[in-house]
């Protein structure tokens, strides 16, 4: 089995992202499993950034703590990441004038800048030289890089492509001729079927498009912004309008206006922006207006660590919004879950007329994995809209009717689900009236206490239907287990890996992953807990928020918590070290 | 008025209206609220809506006070206006919706008075017919909480621009006239200019309203190549 990690380090603006993306894609196309993560500071230029790529013949769902190859674009990268190298690891770097310095094992000095200037006359070609050098050291096929460069620069003048290719080849040759014999790891393309190399935000964006999302309003906020950026590029081809709102308050209100008018509408933000959306979230609750909200977490409080990762907003997402109303919270742990749960989010939002949250985080948002193309064949756009024929006359339509009309659910059409028939204003002979104030069935303000109670109960009845549609928690491994490692959201891959490692050591360990935390899957969890001996929860926060929810909902407790709140994601090594087995 | 209605949050009707209009430009969309709604709580939305020029009509019921919360100063309250909160009188300057809208390049800027139903109806009709964002600032007394700007107070000051054959295409003149607030207060359509509404400028909106288009999940398969 091959499991190889390389890291590119440098200053913001030096193009680690480009090199990392290109190399990841080459290995993905080459039939390897890849997992790539970025670590960047909240700066446009300067500041230390890195991009790590794990390449394996086995599926991988996390970065590893150790690396075999470091491509250092500045001095600081060496100081910063040297300790992550394995004993046989090496560093590619440009020693500049000190190039004649005595050769040390594992130090592969390459005149990156000089080769770049020779090839294209500009320093920017260093990226291509570095890509070439990495492949040269690994003795990979150069043509793989050439193909990617052709695709990347197809829209630029031909001399740009030419210079990049020349630069890449120079780096490739230099590394191969001088150092390939000193580096043991070699990679070569494997037979493969095409895979998608995709990150969490792209998966959410694709999921939205697959759902027929036609209105997206947001205010830029790291790490959610790339969802908006991706969708903005697809407006014409996918019949969607992407609107940059003046603030997050406006963003969610726009979404609700669009949704009321018949669109499938969505927004995306991070904690601070979501804080501004809470008033409108509550509005979605009382007006029963469908909305999908991607909450891509970053560490708080306040501005926190803008470009880092944390799972600190689970309870915030659960309790956000004044008053009491129903909601759904999905917590995808992989690109696949991000895609399929986004699709499910739109269908549930329409069916139950509630806000649905997709709780992700920077780690899931920005890390790339390569996966089988999504299976679209079974996906359906389920609008659950009523039609005029359902109503005898104009008087008969009431937007907030307390009935089950027009809604068929797994519980049967006769169950009082609290969902009222929804018509689209202007597309119907009837008037569609709704109100932020408590209202009567026809949507007009009321302070009648009986009606108030009826409306609150009606809205809460949706919970029964939502429970029946819970995305079940996932158990990896035997149900009868000595140790159950529990997580939600983005820790999915890394916990899988920790479990796998322990299983290989002959230990009876299983994983419990939550792709949905609200409604909470009480029944399923109770059953799983019965057959597991020791339970350890793993969360990227400082207080164990899922553990709190678990206890509140079921009375069940875990035996230990492994928490991490330094703004960085888990590695399997980190978990294993703390398990005290 | 009998119409489709979404009674939203305090101050937030403009973004609601914008969302609805963009996904179905065939709807006639009116956003309404008080001076506190539009110029206070939702001030940023007002700025953005005027700049954006989506074809929405804004009816701002301007009684120069927060009525519902029992009489606090609003952005349009007069300096010196005393309330139980502004006990020494308002010490900050008035926000003028008309010059603000003009400075934001709004294409229809008008003011009317609730005491002149004929004039008000006419202005609202003109505003709805105008393609783009239109502001109708509607002066009205608040009989309970504004004892300064009373019906009589307005009545004795108001005069109509239409009576002097006002040229609605002259922005500079509109700006100067809109600043007139004191012994005399002008009402009418101050400024009107055609500019394409926001929704006309969005390529994705060319053709049928979004809500009338066909969507199917299989369509995204053509994007897979980007990721391979
Ligand atoms: C977020 C929020 N803050 C405060 C309020 C309380 N509130 C309701 S109406 C209002 C001001 C009303 O003033 P205006 O918009 O001028 O309307 P008027 O009552 O004068 O017609 C306030 C502060 C609220 N409903 N929501
Ligand atoms: Mg008022």
Brief digest:
The complex is a heterodimer of chains A (581) and B (228). With 581 residues, chain A is an alpha/beta fold.
Fold blueprint:
The complex is a heterodimer of chains A (about 575) and B (about 230).
Chain A (H helix, E strand, L loop, with lengths): L2 E9 L4 H14 L3 E7 L8 E9 L10 E6 L2 H7 L3 E9 L13 E3 L2 H9 L5 H12 L4 H11 L5 H22 L16 E4 H11 L4 E4 L6 H8 L8 E4 L3 H13 L4 E5 L1 H17 L3 E7 L16 H6 L8 E3 L4 H18 L2 E7 H5 L1 E4 L61 E3 L13 H12 L1 H7 L5 E3 L4 E8 L3 H13 L4 E6 L1 E3 L3 H10 E8 L5 H10 L5 E4 L8 H6 L4
Helix pairs in contact in A: 1-4, 1-5, 3-4, 3-6, 4-6, 5-6, 7-8, 7-12, 9-10
Chain B lengths: L4 E3 L5 H11 L5 E6 H7 L1 H10 L3 E7 L34 H7 L4 E6 L3 H13 L4 E6 L11 H7 E3 L10 H8 L6 E8 L36
Parallel strand pairs in B: 2-3, 3-5, 4-5, 6-7
Antiparallel strand pairs in B: 4-7
Helix pairs in contact in B: 2-3, 4-7
The structure holds thiamine diphosphate (TPP) and magnesium ion (MG).
Summarize the structure in words.
By secondary structure, chain A is an alpha/beta fold. Chain A folds into 3 domains: 3-182, 3-Layer(aba) Sandwich (Pyruvate-ferredoxin Oxidoreductase, domain 3); 205-371, Rossmann fold (3-Layer(aba) Sandwich); 474-578, Rossmann fold, CATH 3.40.50. Chain A has helices at residues 16-29, 75-81, 112-120, 126-137, 142-152, 158-179, 200-210, 225-232, 248-260, 271-287, 314-319, 335-352, 362-366, 449-460, 462-468, 492-504, 522-531, 545-554, 572-577; strands spanning 3-11, 33-39, 48-56, 67-72, 85-93, 107-109, 196-199, 215-218, 241-244, 265-269, 291-297, 328-330, 355-361, 368-371, 433-435, 474-476, 481-488, 509-514, 516-518, 532-539, 560-563. Chain A has an 8-stranded mixed beta sheet, sandwiched between helices. In chain A, helix 12 links the parallel strand 12 (328-330) and strand 13. Chain B has a 6-stranded mixed beta sheet with strand order 2-3-5-4-7-6, with helices on both faces. In chain B, strand 4 (108-113), helix 5 (117-129) and strand 5 form a beta-alpha-beta unit. In chain B, helix 2 (35-41) crosses helix 3 and helix 4 packs antiparallel against helix 7 (171-178). The model of chain B has no long low-confidence stretch (mean pLDDT 97). By secondary structure, chain B is of the alpha/beta class. At the A-B interface, strand 7, helix 7, helix 9, helix 10 and strand 15 of A face strand 1, helix 1 and helix 3 of B. Strand 15 of chain A pairs parallel with strand 1 (5-7) of chain B. Residues 10, 33-37, 61, 63, 65-69, 74, 142 of chain B line the site of thiamine diphosphate.
């Amino acid at each position: 089995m091959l499991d190889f990690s390389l890291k590119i380090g440098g200053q913001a603006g030096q193009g680690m992202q480009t090199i990392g993306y290109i190399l990841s894609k080459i290995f993905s196309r080459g039939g390897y499993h890849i997992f790539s993560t970025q670590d960047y500071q909240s700066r446009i230029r300067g500041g230390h950034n890195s991009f790590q790529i794990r390449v394996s013949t086995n599926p991988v769902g996390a970065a590893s703590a150790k690396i075999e190859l470091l491509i250092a674009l500045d001095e600081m990268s060496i100081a910063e990441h040297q300790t992550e190298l394995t004993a046989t690891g090496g560093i590619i770097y440009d020693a500049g004038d000190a190039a004649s310095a005595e050769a040390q094992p594992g130090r592969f000095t390459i005149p990156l800048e000089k080769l770049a200037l020779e090839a294209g006359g500009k320093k920017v070609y260093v990226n291509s030289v570095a890509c070439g050098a990495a492949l040269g050291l690994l003795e990979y096929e150069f043509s793989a890089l050439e193909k990617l460069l052709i695709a990347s620069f197809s829209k630029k003048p031909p001399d740009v492509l030419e210079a990049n290719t020349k630069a890449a080849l120079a780096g490739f040759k230099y590394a191969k001729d001088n150092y390939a014999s000193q580096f043991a790891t070699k990679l070569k393309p494997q037979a493969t079927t095409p895979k998608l190399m995709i990150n969490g935000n792209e998966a959410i964006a694709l999921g939205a498009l697959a759902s027929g999302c036609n209105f997206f309003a947001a205010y830029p906020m790291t790490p959610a912004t790339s969802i908006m950026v991706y969708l903005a590029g697809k407006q014409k081809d996918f019949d969607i309008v992407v609107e940059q709102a003046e603030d997050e308050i406006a963003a969610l209100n726009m979404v609700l206006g669009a949704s009321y008018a018949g669109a499938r509408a969505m927004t995306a933000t991070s904690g601070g922006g979501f804080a501004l959306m809470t008033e409108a979230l509550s509005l979605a609750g009382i007006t029963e207006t469908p909305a999908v909200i991607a909450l891509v977490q970053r560490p708080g409080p306040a501005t926190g660590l803008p470009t880092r990762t944390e799972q600190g907003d689970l309870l915030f997402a659960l309790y956000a919004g004044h008053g009491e109303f129903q909601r759904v919270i999905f917590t995808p742990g992989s690109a696949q879950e991000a895609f399929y749960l986004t699709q499910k989010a739109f269908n549930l939002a329409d069916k139950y007329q509630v806000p649905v949250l997709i709780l992700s985080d920077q780690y899931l948002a920005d890390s790339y994995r390569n996966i089988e193309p999504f299976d679209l064949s079974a996906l359906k756009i389920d609008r659950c809209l009523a039609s005029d024929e359902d109503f005898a006359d104009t008087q008969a339509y009431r937007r907030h009717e307390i009935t089950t009309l027009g809604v068929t659910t797994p519980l049967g059409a006769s169950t009082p689900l609290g969902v009222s028939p929804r018509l689209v204003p202007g597309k119907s002979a009837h008037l569609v009236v709704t109100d932020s104030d408590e209202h009567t069935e026809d949507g007009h303000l009321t302070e009648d206490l009986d009606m108030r109670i009826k409306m609150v109960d009606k809205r809460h009845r949706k919970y029964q239907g939502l429970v029946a549609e819970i995305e079940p928690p996932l158990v990896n491994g035997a149900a009868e287990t000595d140790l159950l490692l529990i997580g939600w959201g983005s820790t999915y891959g890394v916990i899988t890996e920790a479990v796998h490692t322990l299983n290989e050591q002959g230990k009876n360990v299983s994983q419990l992953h939550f792709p949905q935390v609200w409604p909470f899957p009480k029944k399923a969890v109770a059953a799983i807990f019965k057959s597991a001996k020791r339970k350890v929860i793993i969360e990227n926060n400082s207080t164990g928020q899922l553990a709190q929810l678990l206890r509140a909902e079921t009375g069940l407790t875990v035996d230990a918590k492994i928490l991490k709140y330094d703004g960085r994601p888990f590695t399997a090594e980190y978990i294993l070290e703390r398990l005290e087995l | 008025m009998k119409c489709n209605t979404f009674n939203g949050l305090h101050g937030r009707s403009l973004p609601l209206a914008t969302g609805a209009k963009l996904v179905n430009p065939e709807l006639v969309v009116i956003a309404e609220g008080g001076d506190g709604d539009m110029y206070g709580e939702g001030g940023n939305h007002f700025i953005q809506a005027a700049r954006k020029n989506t074809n929405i009509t804004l009816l701002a019921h301007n009684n120069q006070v927060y009525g519902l919360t029992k009489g606090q100063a609003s952005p349009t309250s007069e300096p010196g206006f005393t309330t139980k909160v502004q006990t020494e009188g308002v010490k900050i300057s008035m926000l003028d919706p008309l010059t603000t809208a003009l400075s934001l390049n709004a294409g229809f800027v008008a003011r009317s008075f609730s005491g002149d139903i004929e004039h008000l109806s006419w202005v609202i009709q003109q505003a709805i017919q105008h393609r783009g964002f239109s502001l109708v600032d509607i002066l009205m007394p608040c009989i309970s909480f504004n004892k300064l700007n009373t019906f009589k107070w307005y009545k004795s000051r108001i005069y109509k621009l239409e009576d002097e054959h006002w040229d609605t295409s002259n922005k500079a003149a509109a700006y100067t006239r809109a600043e007139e607030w004191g012994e005399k207060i002008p009402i009418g359509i101050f400024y009107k200019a055609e500019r394409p509404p926001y929704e006309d400028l969005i390529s994705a909106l060319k053709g049928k309203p979004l809500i009338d288009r066909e969507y199917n999940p299989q369509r995204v398969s053509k994007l897979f190549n980007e990721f391979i």
